[in-house]
Design brief:
By secondary structure, the chain is an alpha+beta fold. It contains four helices and three strands. A three-stranded antiparallel β-sheet has the order 1-2-3, covered by helices on one side.
Amino acid sequence: MAVSLRIALRRFRSSTRGQGLLEFAIAFPLVLFVFLGVFEFGRYFYTRLTLQHSVAEAARFAVTGNVLPDTLGNPMSRANSIIDVINRNAHNMDLDVDRVTVDPIDAGGPGDVVTINAEFTFNFVVPGYRHLFPDGQLGFEVSTAMKNEPFVIGENP
């Protein structure tokens, strides 16, 4: 009996049938996890760069002293105009207006420094990465500060 067991074990050790399938079964989940990680963090960095671009464009608009019209054609406040520029450039980011701040609140006068800050919460969609962060979310904020141009108050080209 012991001899036949040795022969069977020797045969089993020398057999390579199914080896490729076993290696694939071990490696595939790891490769998939890395691939989905590249996808997920690519989405995160795209979102972050989009918000940075939106805030930078809003700052470029803010320093001019101009205001935008609302949907009825009436001029908005400078702060609301700045927030509108952020939302127009944020491309479907569903940005919460309460998480955008303009300092000073009225966007300042000629020569003042205006600071624009926007906060956003990124939601992960891939389950493996969703569990790495609290509630599957990663919050971040971007801000910029620029000095207003010497514009004439109340004059809008």
